[in-house]
Amino acid sequence: MILVNTDYISGKEFExxxxxxxxxxxxxxxxxxxxxxxxxxVGGELKAYNEMMNSARALATKRMVEEAESMNADAIVNIRxxxxxxxxxxxxxxxYGTAVKFK
Length: 103
Known about the structure:
103 residues, alpha+beta, Translation Initiation Factor IF3, 4-stranded mixed sheet, 2 helices, 36% helix, elongated
């Protein structure tokens, strides 16, 4: 499966199959949330939240690819990511794009 954030793939002609998406809502445990809260007092990278968001993006991408595979797609073009805070320490991540089939 080819994944790109452009509306084309060099050297490939394709037909669009439709939009595909994947999403997840992730949270950190209370203990880590408290330690990350202390980190905001002194500044610096919130590594636990960074790991949480990386994990969420990977899972959302995996789910998007699974949806494209169910459509027999060869690639996904125009991939985009969106995120939103759901509550303190929890975020939704959505990956979406257009599934395509090579000619």
